[in-house]
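Subject: design request, 277 residues
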């Protein structure tokens, strides 16, 4: 009976969490649509970024209160008062941007074009002056301009969620932006005990809970002279850092499902071509 009740509670946490995030996003979409034509760009950007930060923080807090999810994001707080820089995390799941933006009040996120037109995210992203990831020349120019006025830039150098562990091949845009803006790249290492919302994971599939996430600050790279060498160096660093990182389950706050259960979750994704080896 206890196991049945816990399973019911897990489904409640999952679906109510998604409903809560959808409500927050849709509510802000309506307000952002109304505000966009009237607010000057400077005030719209500040308001938009703060509201998104607060909304994402509220969502993660609700999951934390449920005791079925744990988020260790404390190291990100160091970046709040930092000078402009490029924040470059690995990208294991859909929650990565949510976690990082929830701790930073003035960050522009590079987003896929389809998300910029998404019903739940588009209007808020446009108000916050988030940056579309194509065409590449426009993206690099907009990102450099945003950095030069004092913002942080969130850019996932893999371009998509990780398929080949520990990291996909990196895109060259991060090197171009860093070189043009003459600003450093701060790597961020995201670790999790679950494949939940990784590439190929259906949005409404319940993972084995609890799920835990830990975010660590990695090495900071100076702006490159040779962009090709920079990308190779960055990719090598991520590969080594993520491979050699200590087992997150050793942390008492980083609860981990047993190995057999985790393997079963990973096996469900294999028909979709996702490689977690």
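Subject: RE: design request

Done. Sequence follows.
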């Amino acid at each position: 009976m206890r196991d049945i009740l816990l399973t019911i509670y897990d489904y409640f946490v999952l679906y109510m969490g998604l409903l809560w995030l959808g409500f927050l996003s849709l509510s802000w979409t309506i307000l952002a649509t109304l505000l966009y034509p009237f607010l000057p760009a400077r005030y719209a950007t500040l308001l938009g970024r703060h509201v998104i930060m607060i909304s994402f923080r509220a969502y993660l807090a609700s999951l934390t209160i449920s005791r079925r999810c744990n988020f260790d994001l404390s190291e990100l707080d160091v970046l709040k008062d930092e000078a402009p820089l490029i924040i470059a995390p690995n990208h294991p799941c859909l929650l990565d941007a949510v976690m990082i933006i929830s701790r930073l009040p003035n960050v522009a996120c590079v987003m896929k074009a389809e998300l910029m037109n998404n019903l739940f995210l588009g209007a808020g992203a446009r108000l916050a002056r988030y940056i579309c990831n194509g065409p590449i020349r426009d993206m690099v120019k907009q990102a450099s301009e945003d950095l030069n006025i004092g913002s942080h830039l969130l850019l996932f150098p893999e371009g998509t969620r990780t398929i080949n562990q520990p990291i996909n091949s990196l895109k060259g845009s991060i090197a171009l932006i860093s070189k043009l803006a003459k600003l450093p790249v701060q790597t961020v290492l995201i670790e999790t005990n679950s494949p939940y919302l990784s590439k190929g994971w259906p949005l409404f599939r319940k993972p084995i809970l609890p799920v835990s996430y830990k975010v660590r600050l990695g090495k900071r790279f100076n702006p490159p002279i040779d962009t090709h060498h920079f990308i190779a160096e960055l990719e090598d660093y991520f590969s080594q850092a993520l491979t050699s990182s200590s087992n997150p389950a050793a942390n008492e706050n980083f609860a981990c499902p047993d190995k057999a259960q985790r393997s079963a979750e990973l096996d469900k994704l294999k028909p979709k071509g996702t490689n977690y080896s």
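The CA atoms of residues 98 and 120 lie 14 Å apart.
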